[in-house]
Every structure is written in structure tokens, then in C-alpha cells.
Design brief:
It contains 2 helices and 14 strands. By secondary structure, the protein is mainly β. Strands 1, 4, 5, 6, 9, 10, 13 and 14 form an 8-stranded antiparallel sheet that branches. A 3-stranded antiparallel sheet has the order 2-3-11, with no helix packed on it. A 3-stranded antiparallel sheet has the order 7-8-12, with no helix packed on it. It starts with a strand and ends in an 18-residue tail after the last strand.
Length: 303
């Protein structure tokens, strides 16, 4: 189109993820800590193997999952348009705009998964009691990402280039997708029983290689009782019980983005050789991360 070169495009996707996590063994794992057989007055003493031979585990861990059909589903759409405009023989402009939208992660099946809200201490169950399939999370539609580039020829041997652009991205695994159904309470309970703080675990100490000696002592193939999954309230709002840890997702979760910019001067020193000097930078905003809200001095609000 004369001095203009136009480009535009679109990308629309639908994701589904069926994840059966394996962070902890389903049958359960006994852990044997060297501290159990250590001498408190001698640093580095104690052996995990010795704790094993005594049948004295430090804790027990297990994943318990109520079903194997939960799936996360998410739509996303991306649109862009750009123009390269050769204003003069010396000046070229490149400018464009992207619009990126990640719809709220949803649970394929009602009653599976949940979204924990730290401000209410409530787990919202998707599709139950008027709770949306996203657990109440909203879709951000304002992720507009402009970019601008300028190239100017000072003379036949020297060019100045500068530019700035914004890019939105979905974050790392489990930030904007796979956060609702496949790997969260109450569909999954991560059972952790420290030997000194779990009453039901004390019935299984010591453990041994075979049953009978000492009398009534369990063997390694015997595990503490599995956790009891909570009944889902008809209003879809489940108070988080004491002793259960969960991650919180804000209803208006922001999509992370990065601003990138540069300024470069390039000069032809002699035929076939050029010298460039430039400054390149970037800054991220709303980056994904997390912190423990329970310790003293913890933050009082979610950013």
C-alpha cells in the first residue's frame, strides 16, 4: 500500500487439561529423618537408615484424590495489527497493537475443584449453588499491548534505532490455567502426618518389615487412615477447615506483562564492518508469585 506495509492476524484457542498429580505417592510414603537417631550435642549425627531399622519414621505423606475425571478448560484469543510506514528515505516508523485475552479458567464438571478466597476463608465450588464454573474469577479484557519502533538514517553510514513494546504473557504453569479443577482442594487432599503432631499416626508406630513383632505393630505396607473428603454444601461455599493449606486466586487476577525498550546507534566503520552501541532494558509488572500468609508480620492484603 504505497509507503505502508500492513499486517494483522488472530489466534483463538481452547485448552483442556486433565492432570492427575503425582507430587506425593498415592499409597503413601514414610520418611525417616536422621534427626530421630541423632545426638543433639553432636552436629551431623544420626542416620536415616538407622531410623528405618528402628521403625521410627518422622512423618507420613500421601496424595488422596476423590475422582479422576476433573479437568480445567480455558478459552483464549489473541489479535494484532501493525503497520510499517516509510515516512521518508531517512525515517521509518513501525507501530502496532495486540489484544490478548485469557478467559477465566473453568472446571469442566460442576462440583469438582475449588477456588479459595483468603478474604472470606471460603472455597468456592464451581457450578454449585450459583457459583460460576470459574469459581467466581473474572476475565480481564483490557490487556492491550502497543509497540512503537523508529529507525532514522543520519547519513549513509549511521543509523539510529529505538523502540518500545509491551507483551502480556500467561505466567508459569498453574498461574492462569490449571488452577481450579485438576490439582486443588477439595478434589485433592495432600495428607501430611508428622509423627509428633498427628494423633492417628501414633497408632502406627513403630513400623516394621513384617507384622507380629512387637505385638500388633503394623508393617510398612500399612498406612494411617486416608483423609475424609468434605461434603460439598448445596450453596457451593465450603469453609476451609483448620489444618488444610490452600492457594488463593483473586477474583480480578491481573495478567503479567513486560515492557521492553532499546536505543541503538549503528555506524559503518568501513566496507563490510559495522560498530553498534545500544541500551536495552525491560521491566515486568504483576508477575506471578506467592508468599505464606500465616507467619507473623505477613501481608494484610493481596497485590
Amino acid at each position: 500500500m504505497g509507503k505502508h506495509t500492513l499486517k494483522f492476524g488472530a489466534d483463538i484457542r481452547r485448552r483442556r487439561n486433565k492432570r492427575l498429580p503425582s507430587d506425593q505417592h498415592r499409597a503413601g510414603v514414610y520418611n525417616f529423618n536422621p534427626v530421630v537417631t541423632s545426638n543433639p550435642s553432636i552436629d551431623g549425627s544420626g542416620l536415616g537408615l538407622a531410623s528405618l531399622l528402628l521403625g521410627d519414621p518422622s512423618d507420613f505423606n500421601r496424595f488422596a484424590q476423590i475422582s479422576t475425571t476433573q479437568q480445567d478448560v480455558q478459552w483464549s484469543m489473541y489479535y494484532y495489527g501493525e503497520d510499517t510506514w516509510r515516512v521518508t528515505n531517512k525515517l521509518t516508523l513501525n507501530y502496532g497493537l495486540r489484544w490478548d485475552t485469557w478467559f477465566a479458567d473453568t472446571s469442566l464438571n460442576s462440583g469438582q475443584g475449588g477456588r479459595y478466597d483468603v478474604t472470606t476463608n471460603i472455597v468456592y465450588i464451581p457450578g454449585v449453588g450459583g457459583v460460576s464454573q470459574s469459581g467466581g474469577v473474572n476475565t480481564p479484557y483490557h490487556n492491550f499491548a502497543p509497540r512503537l519502533g523508529i529507525a532514522y538514517s543520519l547519513n549513509p553510514k549511521t543509523v539510529i534505532r529505538t523502540g518500545w513494546g509491551r507483551s502480556f504473557f500467561e505466567g508459569t504453569f498453574g498461574w492462569t490455567f490449571n488452577t481450579l479443577a485438576a490439582d486443588v482442594y477439595p478434589s485433592i487432599v495432600n495428607q501430611h502426618c508428622p509423627a509428633t503432631a498427628c494423633p492417628q499416626f501414633s497408632q502406627f508406630l513403630p513400623v516394621q518389615f513384617s507384622t507380629g513383632t512387637p505385638t500388633n505393630a503394623p508393617s510398612f505396607d500399612t498406612a494411617p487412615p486416608a483423609p475424609v473428603f468434605p461434603a460439598i454444601p448445596s450453596n457451593g461455599r465450603l469453609p476451609l477447615p483448620d489444618g488444610i493449606g490452600d492457594s488463593t486466586i483473586p477474583t480480578n487476577q491481573k495478567i503479567p506483562y513486560v515492557d521492553s525498550y532499546n536505543f541503538t546507534v549503528e555506524h559503518e566503520v568501513f566496507n563490510g564492518a559495522t560498530l553498534s552501541a545500544g541500551y536495552v532494558g525491560n521491566v515486568g509488572r504483576h508477575l506471578n508469585g506467592g508468599w505464606n500468609l500465616n507467619p507473623p508480620g505477613a501481608r494484610t492484603r493481596i497485590i
